[in-house]
Specification:
This protein is of the alpha+beta class. The protein contains 6 helices and 26 strands. Helix content is 17%, strand content 30%. The radius of gyration is 30 Å and the shape is elongated. This is Molybdopterin molybdenumtransferase.
Amino acid sequence: MAAPISFDAALALIGEVAPLGCETVPLADAAGRTLAADLIARGQAPRSAVSTMDGYAVVDAATEPGEWLEVIGESRAGAWWRGTVGPGQAVRVFTGAGVPEGATRVIIQEHAERDGARVRFTPAYGPATYIRAAGSDFAAEAMVLPAGTRLTPRILVAAGAADRAEVTVGRIPRVAILATGDELAAPGEAHAWPDAIPETIGLGVAALAQSAGAEIVVRAICPDDLARLTALAGELLERSNLVVVTGGASVGERDFAKASFAAHALALAFEKVAIKPGRPVWFGRCADALVLGLPGNPTSALVTAALFLRPLLARLQGGDAAHQWRTLPLAASLPAADERETFVRARWDDAGLVPLGNQDSGAQSPLTQADWLIRCPAHQPALAARTMVSALAF
């Protein structure tokens, strides 16, 4: 059996996975998808100079406080005034409306005194111009978003500003989840059998995969029966781009996870990773489908799903498999790490990261508090509070 590889080596192998390809979809249907091509602006933004406040557009050099100016027009968002402003003139403008030719300042309405068709201003209107220049956001034909960008709600706003009705995005990975174990029963049914426990890992893994842009095509539970597992593995491989298997990854007499896929020409990329928790995590390919094996302990499974499944799904959609590590302070001391790289579950409070007291890989209730993973290299000494550490949002 091969020796465990390092976390960085395993993640590098995940990063070598080829994307599933791309398709063009309406922008309105692209939330959560990953751009497969650069998004290029159809035109500049703003298209023309616009006012950032309600007020009056004037020629700054020809305007004196207290002097009456003739109001010659009104410019509203969606109905711009198209003339030219000259000395002694003003145009009423509203936020987002085009600033007329010739105007070099918008004086906000709080400093204006209107009298019919004329207006004058107090001396306190200040130096601000309240004009957003044409093209100040981006130029025509500019790359607004690069390929690999995930279209989150805030990024969709920028995508829409490019004035494109459609975008080219990575295909959605179809994911099957297979939980193995004689003891497993669906939540709500486990109480009916004295030796059963609720199958909870699949719930968390499915939710994580969906949040990462995947489609869950099936969730299955199968006992530790090699023949049944082998048949089910074949069905799931046919239906999905990726099968995620939980449990059955150790070397016991009833650990059949890898063996059930071996019958389908499993080619392993790695079969153990030198991390804690999650050493039994494994990854490979069966023909056109990928297989990721996660441990059967709930915390180990969710930690390895965050470390490997999330970047794998990003890669399949054309994104980057790299994690976004943060450097954050410890709010409490951190024990020394052993010979394996360790990912310590922690919660955040006002003082920083607080390592959870219960780091048992089988415990489930601590998961309700764990919102960060602290990365601890092998043999790292104990760290005091206020030490800066590398952490990943969990």
